[in-house]
Amino acid sequence: MSITDPAAPKTAFVFAGGGSFGAIQVGMLQSLAAHGITADMVVGSSVGALNGAFYAGDPTVAGADRLAEIWRGLRRHDVFPMTWKTMASFLWRRDFLIPHDGVRKLIDDHIPFRNLEDARMPVHIVTTDIISGDSVVLSEGSTAEAIVASTAIPGAFSPVHYRDRFLADGAISSNTPVRVAVKHGAKRLIVLPTGHACANQAPPVGALANALHALTLLIARQLVNELENLDPAVTHFVIPPLCPLVGSPYDFSRTDDHISRARHSTDAWLAQDGLEPNKIPHELQPHDH
């Protein structure tokens, strides 16, 4: 089954941010690929920029499976490489807490195109101008610089000085960038949210874990608002995120479970006529357990 063909309106996969919950998007991708559902372009913000760029380089079943294996091998230190040296720099120099080395290595090791325009389909990476707060969309130029900027969580990572701007996490201005996709010509949107830890009994432990958790709450609210205010001429399909979901977007120990559950839940969603346009899943609405 596919909802795209050469004569059809352009379809975008829209990837939200969400830290380690980005693993959920991988399971969604595996299901979409297995059902022959493809995109004409990719738009991604924060960790969604990383997943989206990988998909744009290999939009196949094998590519989705390879992305799953990469994620299963990730540990927190691979993405957030904190050492005594970085802690000392933060405490004594009041510098930024985490270097970009981990994210940059992931890009260099696993994304085959060095410039965004060389991907197999158009890919648009959303960042934020940390001075003005405006969204800045990068569609050409260095893949690594674009993704590093889009994943630069304020306070933890330093902004990226790129083309006379200081760029940071795309989540600040447009975490689930549906309007960016529309602006670039998409008439159909398939949104891959990461969700939020809706079933936790207490906040995550640690400052960065709490900051990321709060960010995922913002993501969900922002996405619902943007979808409700989209032009009715734009068709959107939102894959339900995992619910109930526990843990923290700073915790990579649940990656395998997130991928497996997301693949099975997306399979079930598709089997139950999930491609019903313009429906916002209840999992994104405010709720508790």
Folded structure, characterized:
Helix content is 40%, strand content 13%. 47% of the residues are buried. The protein has helices at residues 22-34, 47-57, 61-72, 76-79, 84-93, 101-110, 143-150, 171-174, 178-183, 207-228, 255-271, and strands spanning 11-15, 41-45, 123-129, 135-138, 160-162, 165-168, 188-192, 235-238. Strands 1, 2, 3, 4, 5, 6, 7 and 8 form an eight-stranded mixed β-sheet that branches. α1 (22-34) runs parallel beside α2, α1 packs antiparallel against α3 and α6 (101-110) crosses α7. The protein has 289 residues and is α/β, with parallel strands linked by helices.
Brief characterization of the structure:
With 289 residues, this protein is α/β, with parallel strands linked by helices.
Itemize the secondary structure elements and their pairings.
Blueprint: E1 11-15, H1 22-34, E2 41-45, H2 47-57, H3 61-72, H4 76-79, H5 84-93, H6 101-110, E3 123-129, E4 135-138, H7 143-150, E5 160-162, E6 165-168, H8 171-174, H9 178-183, E7 188-192, H10 207-228, E8 235-238, H11 255-271
Parallel strand pairs: 1-2, 1-7, 2-3, 7-8
Antiparallel strand pairs: 3-4, 3-6, 5-6
